Predict the structure.
Amino acid sequence: MSGLTRHFSFSILLGLSLSLLLPQSSALGANPTTELSSGPVSGDLIRGTTYPSVYYLGADGLRYVFPNAKTYFTWYSDFSTVKQISDDALGQIQIGGNVTYKPGVKMVKINTDPKTYAVAEGGLLHWIESETLAGTIYGGDWSTKIDDIPDAFFTNYQVGASLNDAKGYQLDIVKTGTVDVNDDKNLSPPAIFTLTSSGYSPISFNIPLGKSVRFVNHDTIQHTATADDLSWGSGTLAPNAEFVHTFTTEGTYTFFDSYNSRHTGTVYVTPSD
C-alpha cells in the first residue's frame, strides 16, 4: 500500500487558488473583455472584471467556482472559453458551491487521510483498496494520476463504497458518462415564480427534491420571497432582480411577500425520481 498512501509533492503554484493562476484578461480568449450582450447562459465559464476567479454557470441559475487550478484542468485544457461580465452582473448570480474533479480523470487524496480515491459522478469518492487495483483501472502509470486536494475542499466530496474489483469502476464508462458540470451535479433549470403587483405567478409549484426555484421581480417596485418560518428568504428584490433557492428536504414550503403579506405562495417538494 506504500505507493497508494505516499504523499505526492506538487509545486506551490498548483496548490494556490485558481484565481491566482488565471492569465490576465487579454489572454483569456478572442474577446475576453467583451461583455456578453444577452447575458451568460447555462454552461458558460464566466468571470468578473475585478477578480479573476472563474465560475461555471449552472443550469439552475447559480454559479459554481473552480476552487483551484487542478480542479479546473480536469474539465478544460485552457482558459480560451472564459467570458468576462461586469462585476455587478456577476454579483447578481448567486454562488451554488464548488466544482469537483471530473470523474475518471484523476485519483485524489488528502494529507490527513492515507487513502487514495477514484472520483465518480457528483464528487462521490471510492477508496481504491490496493495498488494492483489502481494499476488495473488507471494503467501502469497510475501513480502519476493522483492529486492531493486541500483538506478544506474535501468537504465538497462524499465517500461511497470502497473498490476491490475493477468491474466496480470502469474507467472508459466513467469518463464518458459525465459530459459537463451540469451533468455531474445533476443541475436542471429552476421553476420560476414571477413577482408583480398582483402577487406571485404561479402561486404554487410541485417540484422534485433538489430542484431550484427562481423568484424574478417583474414589477416596478420592491418585493421579497420570504419563508413563513423565516428559514430562508430573498431579501429585498429590486425591479428585475432575482433570487434562487434550492430545496433539499421534502415537504411543503409556504412563503410571502414582506412588502405585501397578502401575496403568498407554496412550493411542494416531492421525492425525486
